[in-house]
Amino acid sequence: MNSVELIEALKAIVQEKGIDEDIIFNALESALVAAYKKNYGTSQNVKVTINRETGEIHVYAQKKVVEDVYDNLLEISLEDARKIDVRYNLDDVVDIEITPKDFLRASAQVAKQRVIQEIREQERKILYEEFIQKENDIITGIVQKKENDKVLVDIGKTETLLNASEQMPNDTYSHGERLKFYVVEVKKTTKGPNIIISRTHPGLVKRLFELEVPEIYEGIVEIKSIAREAGSRTKIAVHSRDENVDATGACVGPKGVRVQNVVNELRGEKIDIVKWSKDPVEFIQNALSPAKVVSVEIIDEKERIARVIVPDYQLSLAIGKEGQNARLAAKLTGWKIDIKSESQVQELNKEE
Fold it and tell me: Which family does it belong to (predicted)?
C-alpha cells in the first residue's frame, strides 16, 4: 500500500466509524515516531508529519538552538541554525529532515497495529458516550439467546447480558423477541461499556407511562412514586399540576388503552394507578386501592406509622395475597401501615 492508498483507507474508516480524523492521524504519527526509534535505534527527539491529502510522510530530528553544543543529537548551535533559517534564535527548536528511504514500508506493521488499537479505543469511547446518555432511560432490545441463567440481548450497536435478578418471571425471552429494557447503569471498562439493563426496575414502568401518556411527557401530570413487585403488581402514585386534568384518568387513557399498553409490555403485570396527596391520611387511603378504607389514624408522625381500619369483608383485599397490597402501599407512601378490620378494633377496645 502506498501513501495515497493509506490516506484513502484511513479516511474511509474514520467516516464509516464516525471517528475524529485528527485522532487517527495523530495516532499514526505517534506510531511512526515509535517505529523510527525502534528501527533506527536513536535517542533523538523525532517528529513525524503526514500530509492529509497526498499521504507524504516526513521524519524530522528536533534540535534545540544553544550557544554551546554538548549533544549533537539533541542540540544545534545558533550559527548552524541560522544557516537553515536566519530567523532562528536561542531556545528555538529546529526541524531537520531525516526521512529514511521506504520508511512507510519498514514501519507499516507497527503503524497498522497502533492505528487498529486507536480505532478500537475510539469505537469504545463513542459507544460509551452513546449509551451513557441512555442511562435511566428505555431502550428496545432483541433477545438473542439464553446463556445459563442470563439472557443475551442485542441493543443496537452492541450486545449485553440481562442478569437473572433483572428478569421478569412472566417473560419468555425467546430468540428474536423485541422487548423494552431499562438502562440501570453504564460503566466504562477497558473492553468497552458495560451496560446493565433491567426488566424489573421500577424505572421501566415510569418510562413506559411517560411514553404512553402525553400529559406526563409534557409535565402536566407527575409520577410521584412507584412501588413494584415485577411480574406481579405495581402501584403508581400520580398528581396533576392542572386542576382541569385528572391524573389517574390521563394515565388510564381512553377505554383504558394507555395503561393496557404498559400492561402488555410488562406481560400482564397488574397496575394500580392511585391519586397522590400531600395529606398522608388521604394518600394512604388511596394507596390501599382497590380496598375500601373506613379510617386512617396517624399513630406516630415522626416514625411514619399509621393504623388503617377497613370493613371486615375488605380485610383480605386490603392486605392482599401474601400481604402484597399492604406491602406495596407501604412502599408507595413511605409509611408503616397497620391494617385492622372493624371487628378487630372492637375487640381491642373491649380488651383495653
Answer: Belongs to the NusA family.
In this predicted model, which residue has the larger pLDDT, 45 or 54?
45
Domain ranges of the chain: 3-130, 133-198, 201-276, 290-352
Cα separation, 318 vs 325, in Å, equals 6
For position 147, what pLDDT does the model report? Answer: 85
Please determine whether the domains at 201-276 and 290-352 fall in the same fold group of CATH.
yes
198: pLDDT strictly greater than 90: yes
From residue 324, alpha-carbon distances to 205, 248, 290 in Å are 18, 21, 12
Determine the topology of domain 133-198 in CATH: OB fold (Dihydrolipoamide Acetyltransferase, E2P) (2.40.50)
Mean pLDDT of 168-188: 94
How far apart are alpha carbons 170 and 233 in whole angstroms? 12
* pLDDT higher than threshold 70 for residue 319: yes
Q: In CATH, what is the architecture of 3-130?
A: 2-Layer Sandwich (3.30)
Q: Residue 75 in contact with residue 64, Cβ under 8 Å?
A: yes
- What are the helix and strand counts (H, E) for the chain? 12, 15
Give the position of cell 553544543.
69
Number of residues assigned to the chain: 352
Measured between alpha carbons, how far is 57 from 62 in angstroms, rounded to an integer?
16
pTM score of the predicted model: 0.78
Residue pair 108/38 in contact by the 8 Å Cβ criterion: no
pLDDT at 1 over 60: no
